[in-house]
Design a protein that fits this description.
- This protein is mainly α and 198 residues long.
- It folds into two domains: 46 residues, Arc Repressor Mutant, subunit A; 134 residues, Orthogonal Bundle (Tetracycline Repressor, domain 2), CATH 1.10.357.
- The chain is 75% helix and 0% strand.
- It is elongated.
- It comes from Bradyrhizobium forestalis.
- GO terms for molecular function: DNA-binding transcription factor activity; transcription cis-regulatory region binding.
- Pfam families: TetR_N.
Length: 198
């Protein structure tokens, strides 16, 4: 029962935050959307900020799961780059409300309470990517670089298109740029002689 109330409140929080933003959102509006009593809300969450932090972690977990699913079964370098970029773009477009919350609405000042949990989730994502990447670096299929640089070269350019899409500045589906983004990522992340063998 408590899990259902929590899930309802998180879903309602996502809807309300997406519609009016964090600052304008009220506990009353979230409760109304979730059809939850005041007591139910405060039994699960101590405040709107606490709900926002829990929602951030939940959305981040969904995003990471979608990204890591792209690496199963384990792909070669070219397939992995392709799948990871497409997974990011697909998640942003098909889970637009969650993506807006993760990349546009969430704020660091109210995320302090979940910072350690966020770091742990980010570390699990990094470990999953590194399990795929490290053997490919060792075999010369991927260029050696830090994990952070690898992810920035892989997802960074796609994220520029995604942020414009999520903010409404550009209504074009960012997936139409997938092939170009993948080609650019291959040039940034793989040795030239490996790309030319294709």
């Amino acid at each position: 029962m408590a899990t259902s109330v929590r899930d309802d409140l998180l879903a309602a929080g996502l809807m309300v935050f997406d519609r009016v933003g964090f600052e304008a959102a009220t506990v009353a509006a979230i409760r109304t959307r979730a059809r939850a009593s005041n007591g139910s809300f405060f039994h699960v969450f101590g405040s709107k900020k606490e709900l926002a932090g829990a929602l951030f972690l939940e959305v981040l977990r969904h995003y990471h799961a979608a990204v890591l699913a792209a690496l199963d079964p384990v792909p070669d370098a070219e397939q992995g780059i392709d799948r990871l970029i497409r997974a990011h773009l697909d998640w942003v477009v098909t889970r637009r409300r969650e993506a807006r919350y993760l990349f546009e609405i969430s704020r660091s000042e109210w995320g302090e309470d979940v910072r350690d949990a966020q770091r742990a989730q980010n570390a699990r994502l990094a470990e999953g990517i590194e399990r795929w990447r490290a053997p490919l670096v060792a075999s010369g299929e991927l260029l050696p670089m830090t994990p952070a640089m690898f992810v920035s070269q892989l997802i960074g350019p796609a994220q520029i298109f995604c942020r414009a899409f999520l903010s409404g500045r550009d209504r074009t589906d960012p997936r139409i740029e997938a092939d170009t983004l993948i080609a650019c990522a291959n040039r940034a992340l793989r040795p030239c002689d490996r790309i030319n063998k294709q």
